[in-house]
Specification:
By secondary structure, the chain is an alpha/beta fold. Helix content is 38%, strand content 20%. The strands form three sheets. It has a nine-stranded mixed sheet, with helices on both faces. Strands 6-7 form a two-stranded antiparallel sheet. Helix 4 packs across helix 5.
Length: 320
Amino acid sequence: MGHLGWIIYGCHLIAAVVLPLSSAKGARVVWIDTDLSIGSPLREVDDAYALLLALRSPELRVAGVSTTYGNAPLRATTQRTRDSLGTFGAKVTVDPGAASARDLGRKSAASAAVSAALHREKLTYIALGPLTNLATFLRLHPEQAKRIEQVVMIAGKTPGASLGFGPEEKFRIHDANLVKDPAAVREVLRSQIPVLLVPIETSSCLQLDRADLDKLAASGAAGKYLAPRSRVWLWFWTHIAKTHGGPIFDALAIVAVAQPSLVKIETRSASFDAHDQLLVRQADGRKVGFCVDFAPATKATILGRLTGRTAISSGAPRDR
């Protein structure tokens, strides 16, 4: 899409697909569920980037964070999330949830915390890992489902999408958040909550390279925390997968909520096939938003916020 096309598209996008803001001050209130694993050997680092981006997006207020298994075991994701938030200077409580898909339906600190938060205000739920925590919440507190304004998840793909990387797409990955608990995704799709899918086929095009990490490293405490813990990750993607950079998949989910004018979202239909793949087509299925593209300025915008000094916006509302 050309620059003029993006300008025209951006003018219409907000009215067409974006839900109303959740607070009188204009910040959309979000809950982030994450399997953050930065610092673990050969693990994805994108959750940490997404979390800092959310905290430095003035359009958002992070009401709470829950942790799940996925990129690493629950104990590790919980500790690394707390470490990251401490480095970022965010005073947000971290509530651990599911340790595996077997915990679906089992009460946890995460399910209780989400329920308490929804008693205070409506939320947008951004799931950066498997959907077990959210599906558990929906089972335990079905009466509160209507207070979730939207669920954003990294999952789904168009038929025929290979999820391959590098020369001839020889390095292939799977739709990880879906594969680890398809039953949870089915449960979320059965709800009446609006769903936005940010698929790997789109988010994988958002990549950081060595120069980007160098900028981060020189930008302050948060950048100095992220950059050195991302060097091995970047080496893996550029030398093993042979991509031009490392994909920060989860960051696009934050962009889609904070700055929807930067992404192109189409209304499509999602349904499971016989192999538990969540396929997104033009018709015949559960209606969802599907992120198909993002503007050329997206990466620069993200880096500007990650390296900037934007005040952290997080925590429960202070006027209640």
